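Task card 7
Instruction: Convert sequence to structure tokens.
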Amino acid sequence: MQSLQFYKLPVSNLIVIHDELDLPFGTVRFKLGGGHGGHNGLRSIMENLGKGDFIRLRIGIGKSPHGDTTSHVLGNIPPVHMEGLSRILDGGIEMLKVMLKEGLPKSMSLFNNKNFLEG
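Output:
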């Protein structure tokens, strides 16, 4: 938030990349604005900014199969998921490149329904 102030940038220039329980593992989606949905990191950012109208790149981690959300979010990534993590992150980078070059709507239309583990 201090960087936005220092460079005198509007909140619309902020892109927050975060984990998302509500998306299946392997899914990466853009979203513009919205609430924090219980995500503590987003809550903190929104409290500091006073609003939530920034771009989010949501990286799906899926819900915990055991119901323990805290351990799922803060624990180690299971080995079975580590195998596909580079494809997911590479997909997110590609999404960011398209978004910066061609705009958010174009990137959303190309990628928001894609699971990077499925090819």
